[in-house]
Each structure stands twice: as structure tokens, then as C-alpha cells.
Amino acid sequence: MEIDTSNWPNILRQTGDRFNNWQASINHDALIFSVIFVALTFLFRKLLARWIVGALQLLLKQFSVSVSDEVASQLQKATEILAVTLSVYLAVEIFSPPEIAGGFFRRVLMSIGMVAVFGTWYKLSGSFVSLLRDEKYNPVKVETDWAQRIAQFAIILFAITSLLKVWQVDITGALTGVGVLGAGLAIATQDLIRNLVAGMTNMSEQRFKTGDVIQVEGQFVGTVKRLDLRSTLVVGFDQIPRYVPNSDLSNAVVQNYSVRKRRRVMLKVPLLLSSTQEQIESVRDGLKNYHQTCGDFDLSTEADKYVYISDLGPSSVDIFIYVWTNGPGYDEYLQVTERLTLAILRIVRDAGTQLAYPTQTVQLDSGSSKPLVEPDQSPV
User: Fold this and answer.
1) For residue 268, what are the β-bridge partners?
2) How many Å apart are CA 311 and CA 299, to the nearest integer?
3) Range(s) of the domain holding residue 272
4) 162 and 45 assigned to the same domain
5) Is-contact 291 355, C-beta < 8 A?
6) pTM here?
7) Residues 207, 257: contact at Cβ < 8 Å?
8) 125 and 22, same structural domain?
């Protein structure tokens, strides 16, 4: 209905008449009931909010989802505001005030409710984004400050848009412009979006965590220092930081050395060709006994273990050793191999033989211009 603004006295008189008619039609019993209802809701808002949040927590526990104390506190505050706002809104609906006043009160109450909801989301954005670096959900150290800022900006944008819509402000043109701008940014930032998606994929797969030593498809070996949604910081053993795009990590073969339970020891012990069978078998048995009794190696069924006479080479008889250490530590591995090397020297010496290394003896025949090359062996 169009209002004739040229005749203000008539407008004021018509508005006064409507207000008087509405005031005369008020049911006093309903008025008293509404006031009592709003007052009781205000007085018991905290108790009511605790009940509602408690019921929500019980419901979420059915899905194995826990709510922290900070989140529960913020939800309780928002619930208190929404409960009081809803009670006032119901009271206004009971009175059925004139359209001008009623519409204004409804918009005010709806605005208060939206501010409470979006304000709670804004405060909880840090808690929700922090799940990215919570070891319970993701054992990877992630830099999420920028993600929190983006979430807060999006919440503010949605809040302003919703409030303007409540007050019937036409923002169609602005939304269209934002949509076109968003499409242009999406095209211009395809690489960034691809890395973001790959980063979320890497975090969900949990192929590595902070502190793990990884090798990226034979390129380099380093320690993971930080996993961001765009790139991963890997510091090599040369102490040079490498910022690897997540899309490269997502498509690459990544070897995680830190998840292994043990380290492999594989070597050959070359003995002189002139060694007797008893000497060779004595060395083999001595190495087997050392492997079983020294306590440096994993003797479980999960770890393969082989100590056998394997090859007859051009200058040696080889004993093959294939065993696993108890732990994955590199320092422990070096200590184990050091003790094993000393044990090999002792066992070979006690067996009365020696280690061999390949050599060649060149003999010149006086009747031929070609040298005769024969393999030979020499003790270490």
C-alpha cells in the first residue's frame, strides 16, 4: 500500500487510529501470560541453555563426536540469547501489533538471532580450524592461521548478506558481481586450488607426520617440518628447506622411513677360496650364533633372517647375511653394524681363515705377445 507523504497529518492520524484499535483489541490475560513467559525464559535462560547443549552433546556422542568445553560454553551463550529472543518473538506474534510496528520488531528480533548465531560461528572458527593441527584428528603440524582468517571473513560476509536480506535490502547486483569475481579468481588460481585439494588429501591419508623422514620418489630425503594446505616444508639432511607443492606430493611415490619398525642389514662376507669346508662352515655357524645371541637383531617371525653360504665368486666364497635390527633408529643401526663388523673379523680369525678381496695376477709369456690374466685372491 502506497502512503501519501504529502499529507503528514492524515498519516499520523491514521497510524494513531490503528495503534488505538490494536491497543483496544489486546487480550489482557494473553498480555499477562506473555510477560510471565518472557520473564521466566529470561530468568531460567542459563538452565534452559545447559539442558539444550547437554542434549546436543549426548546426541553427538552417539556418533562418537565430542564437544570441547570452549565450544560448549559458546553454544550455551548463543542458546541463551536465542531462547530469550524466541520468547519475545512469540509474545509479539500473540499481540499481533500493526504491520509497521510488528514488521519492525520481527526484523529486530531476527537480526538479534542472526547476530548470535554468526557471532558464535565467528568465535568458534578458531576451534574448528584447529582440528587441522589436533593430533587426535591429524598428526601433522599444519599452519592454519590463514585458514581461520578466511573462515572468519566468510562468516562475516554471510552475516552481512543475511542481515541485509532480513531488512529487505536488494543485494542481487552485488551478489552477481561477487559471483563473477569468484569465477574469475577460480580460473586464475587453478594451481592454488589444486594444491589445496591435494593438501587436504595428503592430510586425510596421513602418509607422514611432522618429524618423519621421507623420500620423494628418489629425489631427496628429508624431515617433514610443516604441512600446509598449499605446500609441505621438508628439510633435507643438508639442512636446506624445500617447499614441495602438495600436488607433487600427492602424485609422487613417497617413502616414509620413520614408520618402519626395524632396519635391514644385508651384506656378504668373502672368504678365501683356499678356505676349507670346515673353516667356511665354522664362520657361517659363528655368524648364525652371533645373530641369535647378541641381542641386536629382531628374532621374531615378522623379520626374515638368512645366514647362508651363497656364492662361489672368482676370488672368494661368499656368506650372505640378511637380518633386521630391533629398532628403526639410525644411530642404533650404526652401532649394530659396527658390532657386527667387529664380530665378523673375530669369527673369521677364530676359524683360521681370512677375508678375501678380488685381485688379478698378470703373467707375461715369453712366447706370446698377449698377457695372461688370471684371477687371484689375497687375504685382507
Assistant:
1) 320
2) 25
3) 264-359
4) yes
5) no
6) 0.48
7) no
8) yes
What pLDDT score was predicted for residue 327? 86
In terms of domains, do 34 and 157 share one? yes
* pLDDT band per the 50, 70, 90 thresholds, residue 137: very low
Residue 337 CB partners (closer than 8 Å, separation 6+): 265
Residue 91 near residue 38, CB atoms below 8 Å? yes
Instruction: State how far Cα 64 lies from the chain centre.
Output: 19
The DSSP output letter for 366 is: T
CA angle, residues 66, 125, 145, in degrees to nearest 5? 115
* Helical segments of the chain, H only: 8-24, 28-43, 45-61, 69-95, 99-129, 145-166, 172-188, 190-205, 246-251, 277-293, 330-350
In this model, does residue 10 exceed pLDDT 60? yes
Alpha-carbon gap, residue 133 to 144, rounded angstroms: 8
Q: Is 242 exposed, middle or buried (0-12, 13-18, 19+ CB in 10 A)?
A: middle
Confidence of residue 136 (pLDDT cuts 50, 70, 90): very low
Q: At which residue does the C-alpha cell 628418489 appear?
A: 218
Residue 142 above 80 pLDDT? no
Provide φ and ψ at 150, rounded to 5°. Answer: -65, -45
Report the number of distinct structural domains present in the chain: 3
Residue 2: inside a domain = no
What is d(CA 136, CA 120) in angstroms, rounded to the nearest whole number?
Answer: 24
In a domain, 20, yes or no: yes
Residue 377 has pLDDT above 70, yes or no: no
Last residue of a domain, one of 151, 169, 187: 169
Task: Give residue 283's pLDDT.
Answer: 94
Joined grid coordinates for residue 98: 500493526
First CA to last CA distance, the chain: 110
- Greater confidence (54 vs 17) lies with 54
DSSP codes joined into one string, 147-188:
HHHHHHHHHHHHHHHHHHHHTT---HHHHHHHHHHHHHHHHH
Confidence class for position 186, pLDDT limits 50, 70, 90 = low
